[in-house]
Amino acid sequence: MHNYVIRSATQDDSQELARLFTELGHPTTSTQILTHWPAWSQYGSQALVAAQDDGELLGVLALHSMIVLHRPKPIGRVSALVVDARLRGSGIGRALMAAAETILKEAGCGLIEITSHNRLVDAHAFYEHLAYDRTSIRLVKNLD
Known about the structure:
There is one protein chain. This protein has helices at about 15-25, 30-40, 90-105, 120-130, and strands at about 5-10, 45-50, 55-65, 75-85, 110-115. The protein is an alpha+beta fold. The protein is about 35% helix and about 25% strand. α1 (about 15-25) crosses α2. The termini are far apart. The relative contact order is 0.15. One of its GO terms (molecular function) is acyltransferase activity. Its EC number is 2.3.-.-. Keywords: Acyltransferase, Transferase.
């Protein structure tokens, strides 16, 4: 069993964050993370990490909250969750989700939504095990 703490990510984690996001299927570099960090964090987005003492990250969860006109309370969103492939099933994802739920509830969110790619069938089962319901679909259009 790995010893780790759940904490907020910092820019110093950029190399490890890039490794984990790339593993999730979102090829990312440390430079890209550092370039986006100021604007990303300015709007209340944050990332939680499961970190070992040596700086290795075992998992990361990105979250934010948003106010929408059609809901009485803000909506919390988990936009990414990845646990190092070697450690899936060890409880790290559950620990990250529990921490995110606490933060979003304390921020006044009335619900949490999660985005997860169609190909991540195991992730969908994980979220459903944590009592998340499938309620909608997400449609995207690439503008590049």
